[in-house]
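User: For a reading group we're discussing how well predicted structures match intuition. Take Transposase. Before you show the prediction, I'll give you the sequence so everyone sees exactly what went in.
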Amino acid sequence: MAINRISESRLRLIQKRQLRDAWGKAYQAAIWATPTEAPGISTPTILHPAKLGGRPMHTLSRPETWAALLALYHPCVWDVHEQRMLYPGPRPHFLDSHPGTVGKAFKPLRGTLAVAEEMGRLSKHPKCRVQQGESNVWAPFPYIGDLLLFINGAAGPHAVNWSVKDKRDDFRRRGPMPGKPQTEGSELSALQRHALEATYYQDAGIRTHQVAGREIDATLRSNLHRLFLSHAEPVQLSPAVCLKLCEHFDQMVGSSTPAYKIVREAALHLGVETLVMKNVLEQGIWHRRIQVDLFEPVLLDRPLVPMREDPLGVYCDWFADGEAQ
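Assistant: Thanks. Here is the predicted 3D structure of Transposase, as structure tokens, for the group to look at:
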């Protein structure tokens, strides 16, 4: 059974994982997608993205997993912090601590306590009792966000916050509470919670996007998941050979030849296993070296269809930089 109640022990665990900024392989999510931590009604998943050093990436719902895969597919996204705590007190911008941004200036965050007070909701901010010396005192308990993306854009590195739900209407509802119907008050509470998070990030010039997982095309979701499964599989071929193979496969896009025949012929030519060549093909598609239509099923028993719409163009607004409007 998941232990996710507000408590001093859980607060200490979150602080241990998140008070010191970390990047790539060293980052630790505030909540892990494990039976003891993920909410009981969630659908947790642990991904191991190569661009994050293969570290465990913890998503707590199917929509969050779909969104994470889309973010990881974007070549300009160089880090993703899932289950990122929203700091109650003031702190520097996250990018201030990154070695690649030395000399750049970023706005700080005021913290959720200041935002909640400004909104007249300070009394609603989560808190818990903690032991402080001989005393037992109240301490603020952090809200937890979904996905914080770090992107190399035209104007340099920036961050974008994704708040993720299944459907657009879910942003007007509190999280599922079995046996308890939604009320007008709970809808207002949900809206205010999202407003607090958006304002918290806006202070630092970080835009928040409400990402509805169902708005990510179902075929695209399936393709990204299938490609991700092989995106980090080891391939015992040199990078130069893999690049030439990707160029060859890209030239075969639009032909009437099923993908398995293209893969098999290349494997026979080089004297390697077909599985190796399948991984080269799928990794080439994942890394956008082979341009296929990801809004059509990408399957080995079908020809490779040329890209008609680029997913990164269709969902470009979710990656937009600049301060929140």
